[in-house]
Amino acid sequence: MYELFNKIMSVGFDLDHTLYPKNSKIDNIVRKSIAKKILERKPELGSIKEAIFFYKEEYGRVGSGTHVLRNLGCIDAQEIMKNSLENPDILKSIKKDSKLASLLKDIKNKYKTFLITASPQNLAIQKLRKIGINLELFDTFIFGDTLNAGKKIDGSIFKYFLNESPYLPEQHVYIGDSFNADIIPAKSLGMKTIVIGKKIPEADFFIEKIYDLESLLL
Fold first, then answer.
1. Same domain, 85 and 152
2. Do 108 and 163 lie in a common domain?
3. Residue 41: exposed, middle, or buried by beta-carbon count in 10 A (0-12, 13-18, 19+)?
4. Which of 180-184's residues contact partners 24+ apart within 8 Å by CB, and which partners?
5. Model confidence over 136-177: pLDDT tens digits?
6. What's the predicted TM-score (pTM) here?
7. CA-to-CA distance for 26 and 117, rounded, in angstroms?
8. Domain end: 91, 118, 135, which one?
9. Whether residue 86 sits in one domain with residue 193
10. Angle at the Cα of 148 (from 152 to 156), degrees rounded to 5?
């Protein structure tokens, strides 16, 4: 195992675009749903296509779809995001991944494991089932709608988790794909971080695919 991770006791995962790959079809489903609400607030954008472009630009700036909507004055921003993410067409685009399920079993045999996701519990469990992952593979799991757990974007959900963990922050590694929602909040609290699919200088390590964890942690 790489020296950087030789004190790790607990391995954690993001769900979306981490335990299943980024999928343009899923992105389009979510963005179109949100864009319809944006167009109601900003009719001057003129079309769903322009509203999607606006959303992508603002998301890149603030790092949260909920924040984009709140900045537009949507008081039900969280509900809009929840409904967009719970679109049943999303589940149809997630494929079974027996190789990943096996890898997670091996990781669980060596470390404590945890899941921290912004997805609400009901949807997250459905996504995991589509991948072929049993929730029992995680010792701890926190969802976007877990009561009083907080949010990923401001780090409060990671603080919530660390307060319950028996390990020091630096004994945890969190694996995700988002600069704003995964790497920065986890690292700011002292956790080690691994980014998947794109290089983020702030992350402690970069892997191309999640299967690369086998050589890194096992």
1. no
2. yes
3. middle
4. 180/62, 180/63, 180/64, 180/153, 181/14, 181/63, 181/64, 181/118, 181/152, 181/153, 182/14, 182/18, 182/152
5. 999 999 998 899 999 898 999 999 999 999 999 999 999 999
6. 0.84
7. 17
8. 91
9. no
10. 30
How many domains does one find in the chain?
A: 2
134 and 169 both lie in a single domain: yes
Query: Taking a C-beta distance cutoff of 8 angstroms, is the pair 26, 58 a contact?
Result: no
Range of the structural domain that residue 149 is part of: 3-21+95-217
Put the strands of the sheet holding 172-176 in their side by side order: 140-142, 112-116, 10-13, 172-176, 192-196, 205-207
Amino acid at the residue 149: A
> At which of 44, 69, 91 does a domain end?
91
| Token pair in block for residue 40 | 């109601």
Q: Which amino acid appears at position 109 of this protein?
A: N
Query: SS in 3 state form for the chain?
Result: CCHHHCCCCEEEECCCCCCCCCCHHHHHHHHHHHHHHHHHHCHHHCCHHHHHHHHHHHHHHHCCHHHHHHHCCCCCHHHHHHHHHCCHHHHHCCCCCHHHHHHHHHHHHHCEEEEECCCCHHHHHHHHHHHCCCHHHCCEEECCCCCCCCCCCCCHHHHHHHHHCCCCHHHEEEEECCHHHHHHHHHHCCCEEEEECCCCCCCCEEECCHHHHHHHHC
Return the CATH number at 213. 3.40.50.1000
pLDDT digits (tens, 9 = 90+) for 48-68: 999 999 999 998 888 788 889
